[in-house]
Specification:
With 544 residues, this protein is an alpha/beta fold. It has 18 helices and 18 strands. A 14-stranded parallel sheet has the order 3-4-5-6-7-8-9-11-13-14-15-16-17-18. The protein has a two-stranded antiparallel sheet with strand order 1-2. Helix 14 (443-452) packs parallel to helix 16 (475-489). This is F-box domain-containing protein. Pfam families: F-box-like.
């Protein structure tokens, strides 16, 4: 059999079957040509795939743009960022960078929102480069500036240089600083910082200066210059600790909050200076004096001061908006004069600590309560007074909610009995009582006080007793039951006049209160604090 093999595209050659295989001659389409054709097709396919990917990206973007979130105008999105960031209670430094990582549009909106960059801090953990960047992004927005360098030894060598550079950075923007806080180790650092802040501060509302080492650098007892050129028309809150500014009254005008502390010996202000400051702040809402030496008090002639306090003051400083008063080791002479010369008809919180004999202060508060005093919180720590002075004052405080007596030896059964009496009720709205470190009262008076404040309706508060005899297990329980019975018989009006039930009681460091007594208190009081006392080496003792 003959096999015809093509010799050319037009002719065929017969090959005998016995002569073996004969390879075909090369065609007009070479291998290189075919490979080139395949490569060309691959290039076209790659281009099509790339084009498809671009179209898919555009399609995804178009679909995303249909989302209401991404269709928000930049102004509305900026307001949302502002509310979300500034509305947080705790300042989160990574909140704004997190928003910027969502997408490019959000990053542009955040960068163009100056108020997000208005809080600027310089500290060992916040660099000047970061502060400079935030200052530039804040544009002309009011600033909240914080310069915080504590008393740690590891960076005291370079703190002066850092503070100087920080003040030089903020000095051109002083006109738009709304809040300024400076915390430094020594007075020399404070003077070097504030000597660069001599321009006017028309927008400054909150000023805080804290010097940690108040007992050092006495040669910086007075600054030779006026802070902010004496021009702070919008200043409303001022907190100064151990910074001696010469008591320039231009800085203390029209304040709402005044906090002074850490002024000892010669740096302490006089009583007349403090009264002049109060006269310039008729809208004052909070006054706090802490760690101020009473240099005017002469230990050799205490009768003179007491004699001056006996005279009635005709022209008092009227402070109708004052709501918070705090005196912590502020000098009994200063405190007596201030309390005797101011009127505080809307005071809601009073805190007195480490003031020796506070009988004149209680008398001044009692005199104010005869007209109007909506006091809600009273705290007395480590002071000496007559117990009847306190009892008479408590009877004039119907709006008192929180009573804190800490390390007071004068508190005995007399005070608790006065709070348990219904002829009439003393402090009927009282809900929180602290007797920390008070060891003079007995358990029976405390139990009678708690029981007298229980609801008159036996179904209003579930007891753990099941029989009537159990309710009369003591004389105090019987007295409380008798008071509740009289209340039930008096009708609905008497129920409305009943006092509030005690919700919190603190008997920490009260050695006369045993564990069983604490368990009884927990049956009728929602929160009972009874942290056990500790020994010399920190070990807990047997008391609850």
């Amino acid at each position: 059999m003959l096999v015809f093999a093509p010799a050319s595209p037009q002719t065929y050659v017969a090959i005998p079957p016995d002569e073996g295989y004969v390879p075909r001659p090369p065609t007009f389409m070479s291998i290189a040509f075919l490979r080139e054709a395949i490569a060309t097709i691959d290039i076209k396919m790659t281009a099509l795939v790339k084009e498809r990917a671009e179209l898919e990206t555009k399609l995804e973007t178009a679909v995303r743009l249909q989302s209401p979130v991404l269709r928000l105008p930049s102004e509305l999105l900026s307001n949302i960022f502002t509310i979300g960031v500034l509305g947080m209670e705790d300042d989160n430094p990574v909140m704004v960078p997190t928003l910027m990582l969502v997408c490019r549009y959000w990053a542009e909106v955040a960068l163009n929102t100056p108020v997000l960059w208005a809080k600027i801090s310089v500290s060992p953990h916040d660099s000047l480069q970061k502060a400079r960047r935030r200052l530039m992004r804040s544009k002309s927005c009011p600033l909240d500036v914080t310069v915080n360098f504590g008393p740690r030894i590891d960076y005291l060598q370079s703190v002066s240089e850092h503070i100087t550079h920080a003040m030089d950075l903020f000095r051109p923007a002083l006109w738009r600083i709304k809040s300024f806080s400076l915390t430094v180790p020594n007075r020399s650092h404070a003077n070097n910082a504030l000597i660069r802040m001599q321009e006017e501060a028309p927008m400054l509302e909150d000023l805080t200066i804290l010097v940690h080492n108040s007992l050092q650098d006495d040669h910086f007892s007075k600054t030779p210059y006026s802070l902010f050129s004496g021009s702070t028309p919008n200043l409303r809150s001022c907190s100064l600790t151990s910074f001696n500014f010469g008591w320039d009254l231009k800085l203390m005008t029209g304040l709402r909050v005044l906090k002074l502390g850490g002024y000892l010996n010669s740096s302490s202000p006089s009583t007349s200076t403090l009264l002049d400051i109060l006269r310039q702040c008729p809208e004052l809402e909070e006054l706090a004096l802490k760690n101020i030496t009473d240099v005017e008090t002469n230990a050799c002639s205490p009768a003179v001061i007491n004699h001056e306090m006996d005279f009635p003051v005709t022209h008092k400083i009227h402070l109708p908006r004052l709501k918070r008063l705090s005196f912590h080791y502020s000098g009994i002479g200063h405190t007596k004069q201030i309390m005797n010369r101011i009127a505080f008809p809307n005071l809601e919180s009073l805190d007195m600590a480490y003031l020796e004999n506070v009988n004149p202060l209680l008398q001044a508060v009692h005199a104010q309560a005869l007209t109007r005093l909506p006091l809600k919180s009273l705290r007395i720590e480590t002071c000496v007074f007559g117990e009847m002075k306190l009892v008479n004052l408590l009877r004039k405080l119907p709006s008192l909610v929180t009573l804190q007596l800490i390390d007071i030896e004068e508190v005995s059964y007399i005070s608790l009995r006065a709070l348990s009496s219904s002829q009439p009720w003393a402090c009927p709205r009282l809900e929180s009582v602290t007797l920390d470190g008070c060891a003079s009262f007995d358990w029976d008076s405390l139990r009678a006080f708690v029981e007298s404040r229980l609801p008159a309706d036996p179904h209003a508060y579930k007891r753990y007793h099941t029989s009537g005899a159990a309710l009369m297990s003591s004389a105090s329980a019987a007295a409380a039951a008798y008071e509740r019975m009289k209340t039930l018989q008096s009708g609905q009006s008497a129920l409305l006049a009943a006092p509030q039930r005690i919700r919190m009681i603190d008997v920490t460091r009260c050695n006369q209160i045993s564990k069983e007594m604490v368990q009884w208190l927990r049956m009728y009081v929602a929160s009972v604090k009874c942290e056990s006392t500790k020994g010399v080496w920190g070990e807990p003792t047997s008391t609850p």
